[in-house]
Amino acid sequence: MERQGLLQQYKKEEENLINILHALQNNNPQNYLEKDDLKAVATHLNITYSHIYGVATYYTMFSLKPRGKYIIRLCNSPVCNMEKSPDIIDKIKNMLSIDIGEISKDKRFSIELSECLGQCDIAPSMMINEDVYGNLHKADLKSIFEQYK
Ligand code: FES
């Protein structure tokens, strides 16, 4: 959907800021917020660009750099670490031939490290966009990734 059409779906109220940024980011095939998105939101909500920029850079869920269609968020907090998440992280980096913060060659995946995902009971865990995976084993990863075309 076009940027302006998307903005028109939201009332010009500051409380809509986070939802608007989410919608714009989700609407971008490369899963990020462009400078022109931030400018358009500033105009739409009549808020300064620097305020919008501050919000967009404060929350780790927003990115100002292009990302893959699917974002793999790997938990790097203590409970998952004790359950061997570093091995899982290394395996995923090898499988996709990318490092943390990079995009796979086919532009399907990006990898990000995350603080606790709130899924400690199924550690080690990760998210792929909104989907949660836990009790991860290296042998499961291939079939999980195959679901994301
Ligand atoms: S420590 Fe990994 S989900 Fe909580």
Question: Characteristics of this structure?
Answer:
149 residues; alpha+beta; Glutaredoxin; 2 domains; 4-stranded mixed β-sheet; 4 strands; 12% strand; elongated
What does this structure look like?
By secondary structure, this protein is an alpha+beta fold. The chain folds into two domains: 56 residues, no CATH class; 77 residues, 3-Layer(aba) Sandwich (Glutaredoxin). It has a four-stranded mixed sheet with strand order 2-1-3-4, with helices on one face. The longest helix has 12 residues. The protein is elongated. The mean pLDDT is 95. Bound molecules: FE2/S2 (inorganic) cluster. The site of FE2/S2 (inorganic) cluster has 11 residues, from helix 5.
Topology:
Blueprint (H helix, E strand, L loop, with lengths): L2 H5 L9 H11 L7 H11 L3 H10 L11 E6 L2 H5 L2 H12 L12 E6 L11 E3 L2 E3 L7 H6 L3
Parallel strand pairs: 1-2
Antiparallel strand pairs: 1-3, 3-4
Helix pairs in contact: 2-3, 3-4
FE2/S2 (inorganic) cluster binds next to helix 5.
Question: In a few lines, what is going on in this structure?
Answer:
The protein has 149 residues and is an alpha+beta fold. It has 7 helices and 4 strands.
